[in-house]
Amino acid sequence: MSYSLILLAHGSSDPAWRAPFERFHEALATRMQASLKLAYMELSEPSLESSVAELASAGIRRAEILPLFFAAGRHLRKDVPAQVEALRNAHPDVELILLPPVGEHPAFIDALAAVIAEQAGEVLPT
């Protein structure tokens, strides 16, 4: 396989914070055929850097990075693009594509709206 999708979360030194992301990754990996990695921007392992290095060693030639963020703040406008650029330089044989944050996807908005409506005891019109 020459493609992988990297789910990028912020990261935290608190294992309890990471647990939902790890459960999400495990559940999603069983549903998908594509190579799927979970990485953290900072404070946690596996880091984005170690994940890309592992993929490069495995012969992956194209990886898309999907930030598990609601919106593009400073991290996604500056920090993560700088990380990705450094990784492109370190691993020139791997095409790295930084995608918009998951929170900007219309399907995410619909799913979140359904959860909020359920919590409020409402059903959204279809």
In words, what does this structure look like?
This protein is an alpha/beta fold and 126 residues long. It is 44% helix and 18% strand. The chain has a 4-stranded parallel β-sheet with strand order 2-1-3-4, sandwiched between helices. The chain is globular and about 50 Å long.
Question: How do the strands and helices of this protein lay out in sequence?
Answer:
Blueprint: E1 3-9, H1 15-29, E2 35-40, H2 48-57, E3 62-67, H3 74-90, E4 95-98, H4 106-119
Parallel strand pairs: 1-2, 1-3, 3-4
Task: Summarize the entry for a quick read.
This protein has helices at 15-29, 48-57, 74-90, 106-119; strands spanning 3-9, 35-40, 62-67, 95-98. With 126 residues, it is α/β, with parallel strands linked by helices.
Which outline best applies?
A: globular
Helicity level: 40-55%
Helix-strand pattern? EHEHEHEH
Number-wise, the strands total: 4
Mean pLDDT: 95
Q: How much of the sequence is in beta strands?
A: 15-25%
Q: Which parts are unreliable, with pLDDT below 50 for 5 consecutive residues or more?
A: none
Tell me the Rg in angstroms. Answer: 16 Å
- Cα distance spanning the termini: 38 Å
Attribute tags:
globular, 4 strands, 4 helices, alpha/beta, 126 residues, 18% strand
